[in-house]
Amino acid sequence: MKNYLLTEEQIIALFNAAAEHYELYVPVNSENGQVFCWEKTARLDKMVPSNIQPTASIKKFFFPNSEPMFGFKKEKQEIELYQAAASVPRLVLGVHSCDLGSIKVLEALFKDTVDDELFREKRQNTVLVGISCSAKDWACFCSQLEINSRFSQDGDLFITPREEKYILSVTSAKGEDYVNKYLENGETVAGFTPANDLGEEETFTLDFPKIKEVMDSGFELPVWEKFARKCINCGICTFLCPTCHCFDVFDEARRERGARFRCYDSCMFPEFTRMAGGYNPRSAKAARLRQRYLHKYKYFVDNFNLIACSGCGRCIRHCPVNVDVRQNLNILQHSGSEGEDD
Amino acid sequence: MTNIYTPYLAKIKKIIKETHDVKTFQLELVNPESKKKFNYQPGQFAEFSVFGVGESTFCLASTPTRPEVLECSVKKAGKVTSAIHELWEGDTVGIRGPYGNNFPVKQLKGKNLVFVGGGIGLAPLRSLINFVLDNRGDYGNICLVYGARTPGDLVYKKELEDWDKTPDFATHITVDKSAGNWKGTVGFVPVILGEVAPGAENAVAITCGPPIMIKFVVKELSELGFKAADIITTLEMKMKCGLGKCGRCNIGKVYVCKDGPVF
Ligand SMILES: Cc1cc2nc3c(=O)[nH]c(=O)nc-3n(C[C@H](O)[C@H](O)[C@H](O)COP(=O)(O)OP(=O)(O)OC[C@H]3O[C@@H](n4cnc5c(N)ncnc54)[C@H](O)[C@@H]3O)c2cc1C
Ligand code: SF4
Ligand code: SF4
Ligand code: FES
After folding, report:
1. Do A273 and B248 count as a contact with CB atoms less than 8 A apart?
2. Sequence ranges of the domains in chain A
3. Alpha-carbon distances of A331 from A155, A227, B221, rounded to whole Å
């Protein structure tokens, strides 16, 4: 891994140098300090902030809320199909380790069995620039998932402050290409040791292998019912989660023209699994919340050997009724597994 | 940019009205290239598009041994299936697939086959039955127990008659409730299966139908001596992508669309 020692001006210049070829996205601070998502900017005029985790996660760049898959035109009995245009190259700045870490979950899913070009093309066309997080809050628990909030190699480039300057780490071939093309007079440094995570203050120690073990035989545990009691099925946890990836497919058409889209769906909605005729295998709220948890901490581990959670805390921070996945996992890891297997 | 969700275009060659709410659609892929790529096995399914309305999942009811026809039988059940029922011969639709696993046609060789179907659940069984008939020497005797709610709900009536006349092929057709001039059997499929009592020796049972029927059929089969390994079922869950991506069709860690629908 190559590391450069750069000044603020050099960092700014490095990302402005490509402005002609890339769309530039930064997590900008709005007045109240909340940002919903990275915003497109023509030029970077100050250092990338390190204290902002946008409410919407990084997945929006590769897996947007809604995207056309193809267009169609009808003429009498004939149909003509149109493919979506290729995406514009993008440079996304200020990405935290939790979001960078979440991408491998989506990558595993979207390339499994058959490759999802819609996802892959956008990921390939995006340079992700991470930054050492300086804003852990009460809901974060990334360190419990072995994600280091101060450093990550899951993106393409990574910025760590050092005294008055910054270390720019090159963490992928794409990052390397970018630097080779756009960095002028960069001074490399030898012997950079990334900072360690400081851990979280008030959280439970979650033992994920143990949690999985409880889940393996815990399909019928009575706690699911308890966990789901206050949930209002709003789906916010799934929309904001960087690793949630379930989608719906639908057509929009006016007269003879239209398109097929995919858009976020949520396992927390009863319609998600309701079949024609009315039968719904997950009609109970508890069955849906259980599906969300089992999918993240068990099924995904079974199928891809990855936990589908990066501890970003969004589902905790933004749940309107304070459903806290950490608390629930903590209860699970301490509950016996007297339930039946699924 | 092409992508895995873009269907092949297909023309509706022929529409056969099976019952008051089931129609069979004979399709022909428009592009000869896609025709070559669309190689399926009995038990697999496809996503059928009506552009402007949406997509739905149907098993391929035809057999690859008769490559001149590609068929889906569609029961009117909601939004997309209603739109499918309004299509005309000559209309262009979309087909994505084939998806899912298939019946283990190789392992079934040399076995006696017991087919148990309910309602539209005969569609995937029909694919395998015709496949077996086209490779008759490879398989043993066939027994079919098929039922529908009323005589009017029985699908593939003409084929049922032909099968009945085929040697080494015993057909047992039943209805839950008699109507009109029905002279055949009346009774639920699992009950009739119990009465027919096909031998479990060197036999494999393949069943498809409503979940409740499957449950009692499996129970009946095990009472007849069929081991769990010799009972093949198909499962149904709501689907969208058919490719293991959209996340809704799982039962535990298993995704019916890519790990199934044959279990
Ligand atoms: C593997 C498999 C094979 C099938 N084979 C056949 C067949 O050969 N013939 C037949 O008539 N039906 C079959 N079905 C059921 C058929 O897919 C549904 O009846 C149909 O999707 C209902 O669509 P709809 O738009 O009319 O209903 P709506 O209730 O309006 O449903 C809207 C959408 O939800 C999804 N959906 C709803 N119910 C189901 C369901 N039961 N299964 C899958 N997706 C669903 C579809 O994407 C559908 O377009 C099969 C289902 C599966 C899973
Ligand atoms: S955000 Fe909270 S209330 Fe909304 S669906 Fe998720 S757990 Fe339920
Ligand atoms: S489950 Fe919650 S904490 Fe984990 S990645 Fe999703 S939103 Fe973040
Ligand atoms: S239908 Fe989308 S995952 Fe199975």
Report:
1. yes
2. 3-188, 208-333
3. 33, 10, 42
